[in-house]
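Chain A, query sequence.
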Amino acid sequence: MTINWKNSPLIRLIIPMIAGILVAIYSELQSIYWVVPMLGAIALLGSYLLYIKYRPALRKEFVFGGITLIAFFFVGINLIIFKTAEYRTTHYQNFTNEYQNNYLVEVSEIPKEKPNSVQVVAKINAVKQENDQWISSTGQVLLYFKKDSASLNILQGDIIYVESDLQDINEPQNPGQFNYKQYLSFNQIYQQGFVQQNDWKLLSSGHFSIISYASVLRDRLLETLKHHGLSDDELAVASALILGYKDDLDNELKHSYSSAGATHVLAVSGLHVGIIFLAISFVLGVFDKNEKLTFTRLFIVLGILWSYATITGLSPSVVRAATMFSFVAVGKAFKRDSNIYNTLAGSALVLLIINPYLIMEVGFQLSYLAVLGIVYFQKIIYRRLYVKNKLLDYVWTITSVSIAAQLTTFPLGLLYFHQFPTYFFISNLVVIPAAMIIIALGIGLFLTSWAPPVASVFGFLLTWVIYGMNWVVKSIDQLPVSLIEGISISILECWMIYAIIVLFVISKESRKLVYLNWGMILFALILTNDHIEDTRHHFTKEIVFYSVKDEPNINFVDGKTNILISSDQLYQDRSTMLFNIKHHWFDLDLNTPQHFLFDEVIQTKQLLGKNNFYQFYDQTIYHFTNTSNPVKVGKVDLLYISAQDYYPVDNILQLAEPELIILSNGCHWQYHKELEKIYPTPKDHYHDIKHQGAYVKSL
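Chain A, predicted structure.
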């Protein structure tokens, strides 16, 4: 589809606004005085519009466009300043100190069950003061309730009295690790707290609200799925795909869908809302012939769309999709079938005005880029191949959609996930039609749940369709090179790849090859930069002690050589390795590691190890883990203590004379207390991984 800029005025507004939002986020702008240039630009724009109203011949498009660009740039900056919760005087952190830990909170999202706790995102409505008075406040916090029968029954919308010592979210503990603190800050959450069994009290539950009612309804629908024969992986996928409930998905299943390039079907998003929208439009197509019923049709469509969005938890992906299709429905009702680019820009504009931090959500970025890719590139790709057979043409249509979406989203996949699913076009041939069938069967099951024999038929069909889809996805996951992992690109390289794509589009639209030449130059720069990085990594030598809960580990890196010493349990734990360790390997372009257990004798070109004593080039490391039979080693560079039993530090220092002591996450807490007493300046003598994060020593 050719881009018509004249019919897409909202694109020209949203681009400078996004630029302003990004500048404000990365520059951490706070001053309310930024409102002055915004009001000035808006006043100038209004004056110019008034001026050309009486003298239209003097209208200059570049002047109008320039003033508009500046105005919306400052709008973006001020959106961040006024929408950032911690900048508000009513934020709860302005009323708390170390003695105040009593709060009245309202559960703002559907609670998530964890192995040992219940995770709750809550709004703090009031803070208790020293005089036992309550003061109203704002702001969100992340709470972890000890898991029991009471905490498992917490619902969205509940009002709870909580006593908890709130703490700041930790910075990433390992090099290359996902920045969870930054992610939560973009969601306006800056602190977390752990709530014991007797430290909270439910004050209000069951009060009517659309959110709480939708939460209860979703739980009933989940029970309906279970009652009619769904279980295990089939139940987990049905719950995720139809209702947006993903807590039952295990890591292996999620990995299979990720490897097959089909993760998008497990999160209710544009695909699912689009299926619902098309189904409603088809059923209500009879109203199209009667103009008097146009708005009746519109209200029904919007009502069903937003009801579905609410039942699935109003996740950002669902809200985005519902907003976009709402714009399409409204435009159709008013007989204004504006181009899809303007519709996309309009929906994004509304969402960013409500919450400008959405621009930092990976899902937001992927969602809009995927739709843009499908809208622009799908027809271009589809027309490259003409197929007469209807079945093969259908296959080629879905394939072209998959390729188009992948074309505009793969740079983000490389940046955030360091991977590329090789067989995405094959998996989508199955999962997209299957998703449509599963949603239809799920709705049929819910609507006929009052008639058990009929509902059981829907449940039976639903189980086997999902079983078949899971089998295909798992089979694709087992194919050779199904997932290319370890790809690492920088933010700059990601922007450069998108610049190449944009230059291709401009070249096609303007029919000028010069833009393709610029694209080739950028591509050459990416290759050059990658070569420079590879050269630099070739000379990398370092020893890394990662911060992994209760799991000691030592990583030796020499160029492309990667040696990991850890327990087999840690090495086989795919999700823990990925979250804590592998992203650092991706950043260094490291090969699959040589893995050894701590009690093994090691002899490689780079490393010698025996009896927990390791020699890596000129560095010596003694790993103290056995308190029952300690070994005297003398002078060492690094003393790594991971013993879970306590052994006097003075006695350890008689066994080893280290340049630096490193405390593992899982070592006995008393080691830290003793070292605090011995060394007043810990930075020069010891490193506590639990409190300071991973230790990296470059050689």
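The two ends are 55 Å apart (CA to CA). The longest helix spans residues 390-417.
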